Amino acid sequence: MRILAIIAKWLFILCLPVLLLSASIGWAANSLWLYKYGVQEYDVSQTLSDYGLELSDSELEGIYAGLISYFNSDEEYISLTVVKDGKPVNLFTPEEVIHFRDVKGLIWLDYRILLGTLVYTLGYAGVSLLWRRRRYWRQLAWGVVAGSSITLVVMLGLGLLDTLVGFHQLFYQFHLLFFSNEFWSAEGYMLLLFPEDFFSVAAIFCAGITAGLAIVLGGVSGVYLKRKRQTV
Question: Which residues of 196-222 are buried (b: 16+ CB within 10 A; e: fewer)?
Answer without folding.
Answer: eebbebbbebbbebbbebbeebbeebb
